[in-house]
Amino acid sequence: MRLQPTQRLTLRSAISTGFRAPSLNQSYYSSVVTNFKADPVTGNPIPFEIGIFPVNSREARALGARPLRPESSRNFSAGFAVTPVDNLTFTSDFYYIALDDRITITGFLDTDSVASILRNIGSRAEAAQYFTNAIDTRTRGLDVTGDYTIATLGGTANVNAVFNFTRTTIPNENNIPLPPELQGTGEDLIGKYDEGGLLAMTKERPAWRTSVTGQFRRGPWNGLARYSYYGKYSSSLYSYSGGDVQNYNGKGLVDAEVGFVPLLGFKVSLGARNIFDVYPDRMNEGNGFDIFPWPPASPFGYNGRFLYTRVELTGR
Question: What pTM does this model have?
Answer without folding.
Answer: 0.84
